[in-house]
Structures are given as structure tokens and as C-alpha cells.
UniProtKB/TrEMBL annotation:
Its main location: other. Residues 148-159 have a biased composition (Basic and acidic residues). This is Zinc/manganese transport system substrate-binding protein. CDD domains: PsaA (cd01137). InterPro entries: AdhesinB (IPR006129), Bact_metal-bind_prot9 (IPR050492), Lipoprotein_PsaA-like (IPR006128), ZnuA-like (IPR006127). PANTHER family: HIGH-AFFINITY ZINC UPTAKE SYSTEM PROTEIN ZNUA-RELATED (PTHR42953), METAL-BINDING PROTEIN HI_0362-RELATED (PTHR42953:SF1). The lineage of its organism: Bacteria, Pseudomonadati, Pseudomonadota, Betaproteobacteria, Burkholderiales. GO terms for biological process: cell adhesion; metal ion transport. Residues 140-159 are annotated as: Disordered. Belongs to the bacterial solute-binding protein 9 family.
Amino acid sequence: MLKKIKQSAFARSLAALVLATVAGLPASPAAGAAAAAKAPLNVVASFSILGDMVGQIGGDHIALTTIVGPNGNVHSFEPRPSDAKALAQAQLLVVNGLNFEGWLPRLEKASGFKGTEVVASRGVTVRQLSEAELASVAESHGHGKTGGHLDEAHPGEIDPHAWQSLGNGMIYARNIASALIKADPANAEDYRARAELYISEMKKLDEEIRQVLATIPSDRRKVVTSHDAFGYFARDYGVQFISAMGISSDAEPSAKGLALLIKQVKATHSPAVFLENVSNPKLIKQIARETDAKLGGSLYSDALDQPDKPAGTYLGMFKWNAGQLIYALKPGEGAKP
């Protein structure tokens, strides 16, 4: 009996020793692969609007870094060493494309990025700048020079702000979901479900905006903004936007150009002028002072607001912008003070 007890004790000790030894050994390749599969997918988005879209679809399955954050100006952005470090570790890089992120090629080169680049705008019907649009902006900047992205602009140049159409937003969402599914097939079902729910919310909001804007007379659907970021919104919803700075927010009109712009605003009887969260407000405030147009609130063009604000998400941004415009343009209404 004593011998059996001693053998049992020895067996338990041996088993404990084996377990301790195994625990201290490096994980097998199979175990390492399983652990890696459970790790979040490392994703970088170029700016806040894409960052929100990726986050909505990716959920807890991804570790997300956004390069140009809330209220950041992509047009004037300069990459930082921390951006190169984040990109070097990324498995996916989600970008707008359409020549929007002009600083991105040098950042990718500096970081040694080896992951997969996902162009969210792939498949959208792009809006091309007309000769009249370019001539108007060039004239307002004096001597045909516009600065920024329009220095070498020509008719047919594409407008990169495609996310300002909810129809395009749906395409962005599908492209992002497809990329996540390909990179992380284990969570494909969840990515697909989240994307479809997200797209259904876009469809519902799109229908609501169309219905309300259709009740506003077409001659009142005219507004002034800092730069030409709302061409896709205009195309979808029949609102005319008069822009002071072309498609880039880093170039301002000359004194002569500003006078011409003020004259144009008066001639078109635009009910309201709007600030943008990524542009200098001085220009728009001056236009409002010198015309009969009301000073509206802020519109969100190239960046979201902080996450806890009404315009802190893509859908929230669209609701905010549409609400501000509808309030200002409805007959008998005035822009919010």
C-alpha cells in the first residue's frame, strides 16, 4: 500500500514536471499560427472619414490607426515619424485615392510599407471639373493661378471628395469589407454583416435627405462654402455650391478675386454661406458681411469632428451637413446664429 502511494506521488510529481517543462518551451509553429490568427488585424486609414468607415465594419477584429485625425486638413498635412512607424506595421492601408492624399507616396516609401493598399473609392463614378469651374476659380485667384491642387488643373480633372455622396459611401463600404474579408477570412461573416447593416443605414439616410431637399425650391438651393468639396453632394441632391478656393483648401483668392466672388454671391442670391471645419473662417465671414447671405454653421468636408460630437462619424457628418443646409435653405427659415 505504501509502495502504491509512493508511486502515485511520484507520478504526480513527474506529471507536474512535464507540464512545467512544456509550458516553458517555445510554442510550436501551429500554436504560434493560432495565436496570430486571434490577433487583431492591423489597419491604417489615411484620414478620419475612412477611419470611421473602417472602424464601423471592422469592429473589434481590427487594430485601427488613422493618420489625419478629426478636424485635420488632408490638403496641408505633413506626415510625422509616428505615421511612418504605424504604416510600417500595417497589414492593410485604406486610402481614398483620386489624388487626394498627395503626401502618401513618400510616406509609404519612408515607412517601407509591405502590406496591402486598399483604394476605397475604386468603382465610383468620378466627378470631373468643368472648364467653367476651373475658369471661375482661376479668375478669383488672379492671373489664372489658383495655388494648391489647381496650379496645373485642366478640364476633366477629377474631384477627389467622392465620399460626399452616400451612394459612393456605399461603394467605399463594400470595398473596405472585401479587403477585410480577404485579409481575415476567419471573421468574414461578421465583416459582411456589419457592412450590410452600415450600407442599409446609408440608404435610409440618403432617401430621407432627398425627400426633404426636394421640398425646397431649386432657386433657393444655393450656398457658398470655403472650398469645392461638395460637388458630389451637389450632383446627388441638386444643391448649387459656390466655392471660394477650388478643390483644395490651401489656396485663397486674391483681393480682386474676392470682390468678384462677393459679386457672384449677390447675383445668385445665395441664402447662406457656410464655414468648413478644415478652412480659415475669416474668408467666409467677410463674404457674409458684404452680402445679404446669412452666416450658417459649420459644414464638415474633408474631416470628421471629434468622436463624441454629432459630426464625429461618417453618417453623423452627413446628417449634420444636411440638417444645416436644409435649415438655412428652407423658405421662411434663416441660418442658425
